[in-house]
From TrEMBL:
Top-level taxon of origin: Bacteria
Gene3D superfamilies per UniProt: Periplasmic binding protein-like II
InterPro entries (alphabetical): Bact_solute-bd_prot1, TAT_signal
Family, as annotated: Belongs to the bacterial solute-binding protein 1 family.
SUPFAM superfamilies linked: Periplasmic binding protein-like II (SSF53850)
Protein name: Carbohydrate ABC transporter substrate-binding protein (CUT1 family)
Length: 554
């Protein structure tokens, strides 16, 4: 992306990366790139075009397990509306021949599954060839835990880090140089052929795993959709309500859906999607005079903030969200306590998984992109990768090969035995096949299966969850519509590492914004917060980004 996370909700943004078939980068987040020479310092920032990194990157060797039923358009993911009758075995050998336990740290945005005596873990570990000892942390707190862990140097063999957490860490380049293995000798060019599933990851995603002129991480490819606005179609149908097509509709829905006596409110968090609907850019844009302008400096942003504040002040936002900007919204939305929220695309099918037994009528659907005035909307895009998995430095060549083998296993795409196993477990134990061939989790599967192995490395994006009737078709339609109106990225094809000073600006601005929304500060404080952002490093950042564009003839 092309700027800092400003006014975003980065603690929730990672939800958009959940799920094997839907990964997205945080709206407005800059993923760090090549740092300043050998020092590993990211103090002043650096940018480099992706094509200059080609010598470090793996050769793309496609692997097609099954053809998509619904090809993606304009960069949207392909859709698979049914499960293949036969699955391919993509990784025939055990990836960890030594059998030595693998340590890994990953996030999770749902209840942590039992780690001992879990037959889902046992089945995957048997195929991998060694037990994976997970340290699973609550996703909402993940960024807070990373700084101390990196500072202490006490990292596991495999460490998953989301890109916007990286952009909030000063001098991450130094930490990467000190703590993580250079994977270039193992994966660059034809060397990646030893790991066919990793070779199937797109080249542009690999470019975002480079720090200090070294390939430092395996990327989690992204289709670039940070958010979608979801609504409870099952309940709106009961109430005779329709999804919004402009901001007036959104306000009217607030009044129609909110019934405090019944314990029901219209909205959870919707701020980023309101920004988008008001035409707020995803990061930096150029004004009519060619000057770079950040999203928070635009009149659209000011309009959107005033509108969001109005939703709060009207009492249409659920009280738990009003009281706590970090509230866990899954249970509230799934319980019908509020009916409209923004969520990462991957969160949709995960909610269906949680509710398919408890509430078969549960039917969340996406709101098609709309503009606040009913005109042509825009959607935000993201970088080709949004999550990264690093290998601890100094383990020796043979151990690095084994750890890359683990990620080769978790990179297996839809249509393979491995994908089925790390997503659903063992047939007959963790899931059964529906008449369509799609898996349905058993009671044991609901308890033991979780999105853990997916965070050990990425796989090509795809829409695959046909076990939920209509899901693939609906998600495919939404993605194709969203991709069609995705705004142009000024920095497309340029790997940017923001100056470290800008990382410190994100949280204070977001804190001020949350107070303005909730009426704890007057709307006039927005100008003050923007001025502080400019004076404390935003204007320096503008000069840096302007030079990046100038150096690249833009």
């Amino acid at each position: 992306m092309t700027g800092p996370v400003i006014g975003g909700t980065s603690r929730r943004t990672f939800i958009s990366l959940l799920g094997a078939g839907a990964a997205a980068a945080a709206g407005g987040a800059t993923l760090t790139g090549c740092s300043n020479g050998g020092s590993g310092s990211s103090t002043t920032g650096r940018a480099e075009t992706e094509d200059k990194l080609s010598g470090l990157l793996p050769k793309y060797i496609p692997y097609e397990s099954v053809k998509p039923d619904l090809p993606g358009e304009n960069g949207a993911s392909p859709g698979y509306s049914h499960y293949p009758a036969e699955l391919k075995r993509a990784v025939p050998d055990k990836m960890v021949p030594s059998g030595k336990e693998v340590t890994a740290m990953t996030p999770l945005w749902s209840p942590i599954p039992p780690l001992a005596g879990n037959s889902y873990f046992e089945a995957n570990n048997e195929r991998i060839g060694a037990p994976v000892k997970f340290n699973i942390l609550n996703g909402n707190d993940y960024g807070d835990k990373l700084g101390p862990i990196l500072a202490a140097g006490n990292v596991p063999e495999l460490l998953c880090i989301p890109g916007w957490n990286i952009s909030s860490l000063t001098r991450f380049g130094q930490a990467a140089d000190k703590l993580f293995e250079d994977l270039t000798p193992h994966l660059a060019g034809d060397k990646v052929s030893a790991y066919p599933m990793l070779a199937n990851l797109p080249t542009r995603a690999w470019a975002y795993g480079v720090w200090n002129s070294q390939l430092k991480a395996v990327p989690f490819p992204s289709d670039g959709f940070p958010w979608m606005l979801m609504y409870r179609k099952d309940i709106l149908d009961q109430l005779g309500a329709e999804p919004p097509k402009n901001s007036d509709d959104l306000l009217a829905l607030g009044k129609q859906l909110t019934d405090a006596k019944a314990g029901r409110w219209a909205f959870g968090s919707v701020a980023d999607e309101v920004h988008r609907a008001f035409g707020v850019p995803g990061g930096w844009i150029k004004d009519s005079g060619g000057k770079l302008v950040n999203k928070i400096e635009t009149p659209q942003f000011e309009e959107a903030v005033a509108f969001i504040r109005r939703l709060f002040q009207s009492g249409y936002v659920h009280p738990e969200v009003v009281a706590n900007a970090g509230a866990d919204e899954n249970a509230l939305f799934e319980g019908g306590k509020f009916l409209i929220r923004q969520n990462g695309p991957g969160g949709w099918h995960e909610s269906l998984q949680r509710q398919q037994t408890a509430n078969p009528k549960f039917n969340p659907q996406p709101v098609m992109p709309f503009a606040h005035d009913g005109g042509t909307p825009i959607t935000w895009g993201g970088d080709p990768a949004g999550i990264f998995t690093f290998v601890k430095k100094g383990l020796g060549e043979e151990r690095v090969k084994e750890l890359l083998g683990v990620m080769n296993y978790t990179a297996a795409p839809f249509g393979t035995e491995e994908y089925q196993l790390y997503n659903y477990g063992v047939e007959g134990k963790h899931y059964t096949k529906q008449p369509s061939g799609a898996p349905k989790l058993t009671a044991l599967g609901q308890k033991e299966v979780s999105q853990t192995y997916i965070f050990l490395g990425g796989r090509p994006t795809a829409i695959t969850e046909s076990e939920y009737p209509g899901y693939v078709e609906s998600m495919s339609a939404w993605q194709n519509a969203s991709a069609k109106v995705r705004e142009k990225n000024l920095f497309d094809g340029i790997r940017v590492e923001q100056p470290a000073k800008m990382a410190a600006l994100n949280q204070p601005f977001d804190d001020a914004l949350q107070d303005i929304y909730r009426g704890r500060k007057p709307i006039s404080e927005l100008k003050t917060a923007v001025k502080q952002w400019q004076d404390n490093g935003g204007n320096e950042g503008r000069e840096f980004y302007a030079k990046v564009l100038s150096d690249n003839g833009r």
